[in-house]
Structures are given as structure tokens and as C-alpha cells.
Design a protein that fits this description.
mainly alpha; about 170 residues
């Protein structure tokens, strides 16, 4: 039925079909990989844009809060709390010697009641906390104001910077 020459030809034909099938599958896998890479690049671009927008919002907030403290439009303790939370996103910046006063002052005022908890205090308790807060503000006032000056200038200088200006 089969000639002896037909067997090698059939094996060669079957091998060729297997190789072509594998090449087709490889092509399909490469196409899927390129599609995934394009999707990944689009997601990464969206993530970078989002990170940049958040960074710019934080940078601008720090700048404005520091300016408000400098101009006396914001109590030092409130500025301290707000800036401390924003600097949590930039631990390297917060750890710099000229900014350590923020953490030190925050450690002393963070236990004071705010918002609804403050409203729940009696008038005498609120007054006692206010006096304690004012003492902290007086003790750190000059150092904190100097810090606000440098922080304000630094945030202005960082306008338009990349969100990863401080990775550590």
C-alpha cells in the first residue's frame, strides 16, 4: 500500500505541519504579548499621570499651608498637623534636619482633641487644651516659622517637579 519512499515523505510532511503549527502558535503568543505590553504601558501612563497630579496637589497644599502659617492666617498647630500628614508621603523630606521641628511639634499636639471630639469636651477641658496648645506653639514658634519659610521656598522651587522627587 505504501511505497518505501512514501514513508519518509509522510514523516517529513507531518514534521513540517507540526513545525508550521508551532510557528503559528508562537506568532499568536507574540501578538498577545505585544497587546499585553501595550495595555501595561497605557495603565502605567495612567498611573504616572495620577501620581503626578497627586504630587502636585500635595506640593501645592504644603506650599499654601506654609504660606498661611507665615502670614498668620493659620494657627501654627493646625499648620503643623496638616503639613505633617502631607509630609508622610515624603519621608525623606520630613526627616531632613530643618523639617524635624514639624514631627517634634506634632508629637506634642497630636493627642489634643479635634472636630467632634473637641466639641464633646467641656468648656474647661477645651480651655485647658487651648492653653497647652498655645504653650507648645510658643515653644516651637520661631523654629516652626523658620521651617515654614524654608518649606514654602522649597515647595515653590519644586513646582512642576516629578512626583518621585523624594523617594525615601
Amino acid at each position: 500500500m505504501f511505497d518505501t519512499l512514501d514513508l519518509p515523505f509522510m514523516l517529513l510532511l507531518a514534521g513540517g505541519l507540526i513545525v508550521l503549527s508551532l510557528l503559528g502558535y508562537l506568532g499568536w503568543l507574540l501578538l498577545q504579548l505585544r497587546r499585553q505590553q501595550r495595555r501595561d504601558a497605557a495603565v502605567q501612563t495612567q498611573l504616572d499621570d495620577s501620581n503626578q497630579a497627586q504630587h502636585e496637589q500635595r506640593r501645592k497644599s504644603i506650599e499654601l499651608i506654609a504660606l498661611a502659617a507665615i502670614h498668620g492666617d493659620c494657627e501654627l498647630s493646625e499648620a503643623c498637623i496638616r503639613i505633617k500628614h502631607l509630609l508622610d508621603y515624603y519621608p525623606g523630606l520630613a526627616a531632613e534636619p530643618e523639617h524635624r521641628v514639624i514631627g517634634e511639634m506634632y508629637a506634642e499636639i497630636s493627642s489634643f482633641a479635634t472636630h467632634d471630639a473637641r466639641q464633646a469636651l467641656t468648656a474647661s477641658e477645651r480651655s485647658a487644651e487651648d492653653r497647652a496648645r498655645y504653650r507648645v506653639q510658643e515653644r516651637y514658634g520661631n523654629a516652626f516659622m523658620a521651617c515654614m519659610q524654608t518649606l514654602h521656598a522649597r515647595m515653590r522651587a519644586l513646582e512642576g517637579s516629578r512626583y518621585d522627587f523624594d523617594t525615601g
